[in-house]
Write a structure and sequence with these properties.
By secondary structure, the chain is α/β, with parallel strands linked by helices. The protein has 6 helices and 7 strands, in the order αβαβαβααβαβββ. The radius of gyration is 17 Å and the shape is globular. The two termini are 25 Å apart.
Length: 130
């Protein structure tokens, strides 16, 4: 993680947004987070973590947890889309090739190169394709 964080933290002030998907790097991600930054923790591979609560108050850092599927929500969502009750084709505003992933994130208000948030466009749902 340090090598990737060093590339993104070009000003030495920390990274504004980190998405931690392994569950094993929450603590180091919090350390590399900028003041006012947000860490989205979606990985389930880790275990308990130890965090000094002062980083949330003193540095205004935010830790947000998310999980994609609870109580069969994937199956229920698929059923809603397949049945036509949820018009999924109307939700996707942009389809972008994986090679242009930086543009996809820019549309969502994330400057990957600068490692900071920017003003989002009118994108609703951006889908990356191979």
């Amino acid at each position: 993680m340090d090598e990737a964080a060093d590339r993104l933290d070009t000003h030495g002030t920390g990274i504004d947004v980190i998405v931690e998907t392994s569950g094993r790097a929450v603590e180091p991600a919090l350390e590399r987070l900028a003041r006012g930054g947000q860490l989205l923790a979606i990985g389930l591979g880790g275990g308990p973590i130890s965090v000094n609560p002062a980083i949330f108050a003193d540095h205004s850092k935010r830790l947000v947890g998310s999980i994609d599927s609870l109580n069969g929500s994937f199956a229920e969502s698929l059923d809603l889309i397949v049945s036509g009750r949820v018009p999924a084709e109307q939700i996707v505003s942009h389809v972008i090739g994986l090679d242009d992933h930086a543009e996809a994130f820019r549309l969502l208000g994330i400057d990957l190169e600068g490692g900071r948030r920017t003003a989002p466009s009118a994108a609703l749902k951006v889908v990356l394709t191979p």
